[in-house]
Amino acid sequence: MILAAYVFGFQRPDGRWGVVNDDKGRLIATQLGAVADTFAKSLKVRGVPSVMPVEQTPIQIADLILSGGIKPDDVPEHFFLIESESLDAEDAAVWAADLADLVPLTTALSPTREQARA
């Protein structure tokens, strides 16, 4: 059985899309819809207006990580499932809100390198 998870996409000021990583550079994901909503809302409160949960398969998630230049053997250490640090769904929602405070916003709120050069 393949279990999908939500990752979080955002639109940069230049119109390009990116994914949300934590302060350690790991792709953030959750398999719980309510936790996805909490995390996205918490990022919006911090000033990332275009963030949204995007459902992905495990293969799609691995492809996202690999597209960042990560070696295949290193994929697991570049992935973070919110509920992996939680006792239950309620605790995961609290952790999601706290985790949103640790996401570096410079990528989401600043232009891409290409836009900055223009």
Report low-confidence residues grouped into runs of 5 or more.
Answer: 110-118
The number of helical segments is 5
Terminus-to-terminus distance = 47 Å
What is the alpha-carbon Rg in Å?
A: 14 Å
Strand content: 15-25%
Question: What proportion of the residues is helical, as a percent range?
Answer: 25-40%
Assign an overall shape.
globular
Summarize model confidence as the mean pLDDT. Answer: 85
Major sheet size, sense and barrel closure = 5 strands, mixed
Structural class per helix/strand content?
alpha+beta
> How do the helices and strands follow one another from N- to C-terminus?
EEEHEHEHHH
Question: How many strand segments?
Answer: 5
Oligomeric state of shown chains: single chain
